Amino acid sequence: MNDLTVTRQTFDEVMVPVFSPAAFVPDRGLGSRVWDTEGRDYIDFAGGIAVTALGHAHPELLKVLHDQGGKLWHIGNGYTNEPVLRLAKRLEDLTFADRAFFANSGAEANEAALKLARRVAFERHGADKVEIISFTQSFHGRTFFTVSVGGQPKYSEGFGPVPAGITHLPYNDIEAAKQAIGAQTCAVIVEPIQGEGGVIPADPAFLRALREACDQHGALLIFDEVQTGVGRSGYFYAYQETGVTPDILTTAKALGNGFPIGAMLTTKELAVHFKVGVHGTTYGGNPLGSAIAEKVVELVSDPRLLEGVHSRSEALRGQLAKLNERFGIFEEVRGKGLLIGAELTDAFKGRAKDFVTAAGKHGVIMLMAGPDVLRFVPSLIIPLDDMYEGFARLAKAIDEVVGATAEAPAR
């Protein structure tokens, strides 16, 4: 019997304050609904930051968790295991890749990708080809290397000198990319849709230009599909719609539907540069996480599920259009599949957090993508009834914020 009582206040008393969680404490979830410790229910439009792509407590994932949990959780990297080998084969069958490295998160997958790119350049071209090109407002993780490569300086400031050889360019600027990518460039890392940076899709011509420039100068093209991958865009990986194939792809978030797992996918020609002992992980590719991820990949790669993402995307955009007809708060709605960003008008710039907080009070779990954008990343299989109920509640939250703004005295 657990008699240790905890509340939201307990967070402030026991946790390092790098997060500022909502006032309510989620307790359990089923499908696209979550209940807090007080028994209140919420429609989940956040999906644990684009993670629970199959919703909460999916019965087939629970069965895998139970079955594999009764067999083998962890064995260490001195051994392989059947679930991780099946997962690797499944991912490689679905993509350009024929080699996989498994980690525990998107940051770790990106760390591996960037290290591999540097190693390839070192062994093929020598010690001077080290430049990594990234893009402003990009996000690639919270390790010191990945946060330095990411294009949001606020996340890397205050921790000492950043690693050398990193250049940031404007996203979707073809000419800037052509001028910058050169003989010293070992890799270009790009999100097909910038997630944390405001849900901004890449122009296909921009991605083609990056591919051409990388080929011209012997650089590797890395697609960060941590947020866009595993069905989120309506394709299993977003690159598959663009006509551009990367050399390395990173994936995490939805891959485990909440169980921590990430992967770096690449070709056998590049993988040989990661010889035994060059890189590693303790927990990455453990049998429990791999078994869950294998079932996620099986379910999400079903063409019927991916078609459902497209139809739900249209429904969600329709709901946003109705909200905007009523309130006029969105300047632009953008994104693909069920990764949708609604940018606020000038009158509400910087107020995304206010809408997210109000949504919580009215029974909707929401996200932002920077201070000006509301982000919608629900389950890929969210029932339409839940979606419509969520938007009805969200309308009440928006009405509250808009009304309070109208009543506020002029400054």
UniProtKB/TrEMBL annotation:
Chief place where the protein resides: cytoplasm
Enzyme Commission numbers on file: 2.6.1.11
Positions with a binding annotation for pyridoxal 5'-phosphate: 106-107, 139, 224-227, 282
GO terms (BP aspect): L-arginine biosynthetic process
Residues that bind N(2)-acetyl-L-ornithine: 142, 281
GO MF: diaminobutyrate-2-oxoglutarate transaminase activity; identical protein binding; N2-acetyl-L-ornithine:2-oxoglutarate 5-aminotransferase activity; pyridoxal phosphate binding
Top-level division of the source organism's lineage: Bacteria
UniProt cofactor(s): pyridoxal 5'-phosphate
Cellular location(s): Cytoplasm
Pathway: Amino-acid biosynthesis; L-arginine biosynthesis; N(2)-acetyl-L-ornithine from L-glutamate: step 4/4; Amine and polyamine biosynthesis; ectoine biosynthesis; L-ectoine from L-aspartate 4-semialdehyde: step 1/3
Keyword vocabulary terms for this entry: Amino-acid biosynthesis, Aminotransferase, Arginine biosynthesis, Cytoplasm, Pyridoxal phosphate, Transferase
Xref: PROSITE patterns: AA_TRANSFER_CLASS_3
Catalytic activity: N(2)-acetyl-L-ornithine + 2-oxoglutarate = N-acetyl-L-glutamate 5-semialdehyde + L-glutamate
Family of the protein in this entry: Belongs to the class-III pyridoxal-phosphate-dependent aminotransferase family. ArgD subfamily.
Note: May also have succinyldiaminopimelate aminotransferase activity, thus carrying out the corresponding step in lysine biosynthesis.
Cited PANTHER family: AMINOTRANSFERASE CLASS III (PTHR11986), SUCCINYLORNITHINE TRANSAMINASE (PTHR11986:SF113)
Protein name, UniProt field: Acetylornithine aminotransferase
Native source organism of the sequence: Paraburkholderia phytofirmans OLGA172
